[in-house]
Structures are given as structure tokens and as C-alpha cells.
């Protein structure tokens, strides 16, 4: 139930942010650009022993320069996951270049992204009678692959698998929805 509530809240927040959206921006050189915003929910897979995988939730936005190339920025946070006798949470901030392949005669597309991401992980636990706090923050190369479906010209859904290379390697599996302007 907790994941469903967060998913609904995240999708509702994304919908509210998009009110007043306009159609795609056209430029005089013939190219059509399209900004978008979205929300996602999923699961972190952290390279940490004795830690449960936290639920991930995030927001993202980007700009498609044309039907193939674009840029994207995202923030993904987590809830507290069990870690030894305490808890752990994670956050990532990323900026990416994106590439898409539109499958002919369908709304289905494949997406790849490559860029940099900052990963922050904090854990608090007790070791006997002593409270211990650990944290790690590092920036590294990040990338991902995904599949999406454009329901209509202004709304789409995506499933994505991302990897962040840092002190604590993080993998992220998410599903999300996006509104295109």
C-alpha cells in the first residue's frame, strides 16, 4: 500500500505541474522541440551488504530537440530501508543526453541515456550500544535504457533501468509517466 500511495502522489504532483501546458515549440529552421516533465517510482538496488533495497520516487524533466536526440535532468530519492539495526536512504541527481528510436507505425520507442549523476547514501544503525552513522556522496558516469509508449502527443509512459557508477554503485528500475508540452 505504501508504494501505491507514493506512486499516486508522485503522478498527481506531475499532473499539477503541467497544467497550462502548450503544444510543442516550433522553430523557423524546421526543427520541432518538445519539453516534458514526469514522475517515476521504482526500486533502488544498492551495492551495500545487509541492506534492503529502498523504494525510489522521483521527478524528471527534459527537452527533445527532435524525434531522436534530447537532454534530461532528474532527481530520485528513496524512503528509509532496513539496514542492520537501523535505516538507510539514497538520493541521485543526474543530467543526461538522450537518444530515442521510434518504432515505425506505433507509439512505442526505445530510449538510451548517458551522463553524470551524483549519488548520496546515508545509513544510521546501532552496533551494540553505539549509534553509527555512515554516508557516501560521489559523482560518476551514469546511463540507462528504457522503453516508452506515447499514449498521445502530450502524454507517455516509460519503464527504465539506470546505473550510477560511484562509491556506492546504484542501479535503479523505475516506471513513470510524462507530460509533453
UniProtKB/TrEMBL annotation:
<dbReference type="InterPro" id="IPR011250">
    <property type="entry name" value="OMP/PagP_B-barrel"/>
</dbReference>
<dbReference type="Pfam" id="PF13505">
    <property type="entry name" value="OMP_b-brl"/>
</dbReference>
<protein>
    <submittedName>
        <fullName>Opacity protein-like surface antigen</fullName>
    </submittedName>
</protein>
<feature type="signal peptide">
    <location>
        <begin position="1"/>
        <end position="23"/>
    </location>
</feature>
<feature type="domain" description="Outer membrane protein beta-barrel">
    <location>
        <begin position="10"/>
        <end position="181"/>
    </location>
</feature>
<keyword id="KW-0732">Signal</keyword>
<dbReference type="InterPro" id="IPR027385">
    <property type="entry name" value="Beta-barrel_OMP"/>
</dbReference>
Amino acid at each position: 500500500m505504501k508504494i501505491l500511495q507514493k506512486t499516486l502522489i508522485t503522478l498527481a504532483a506531475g499532473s499539477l505541474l503541467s497544467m497550462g501546458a502548450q503544444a510543442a515549440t516550433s522553430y523557423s529552421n524546421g526543427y520541432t522541440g518538445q519539453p516534458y516533465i514526469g514522475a517515476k517510482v521504482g526500486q533502488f538496488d544498492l551495492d551495500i551488504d545487509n541492506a534492503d533495497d529502498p523504494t525510489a520516487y522521483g521527478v524528471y524533466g527534459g527537452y527533445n530537440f527532435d524525434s531522436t536526440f534530447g537532454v534530461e535532468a532528474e532527481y530520485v530519492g528513496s524512503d528509509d530501508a532496513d539496514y542492520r539495526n537501523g535505516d538507510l536512504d539514497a538520493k541521485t541527481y543526474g543530467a543526461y543526453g538522450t537518444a530515442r528510436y521510434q518504432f515505425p507505425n506505433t507509439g512505442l520507442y526505445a530510449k538510451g541515456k548517458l551522463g553524470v549523476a551524483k549519488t548520496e547514501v546515508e545509513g544510521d544503525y546501532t552496533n551494540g550500544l553505539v549509534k553509527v552513522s555512515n554516508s557516501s556522496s560521489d559523482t560518476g558516469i551514469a546511463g540507462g535504457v528504457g522503453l516508452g509508449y506515447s499514449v498521445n502527443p502530450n502524454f507517455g509512459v516509460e519503464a527504465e533501468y539506470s546505473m550510477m557508477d560511484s562509491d556506492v554503485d546504484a542501479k535503479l528500475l523505475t516506471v513513470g509517466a510524462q507530460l509533453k508540452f
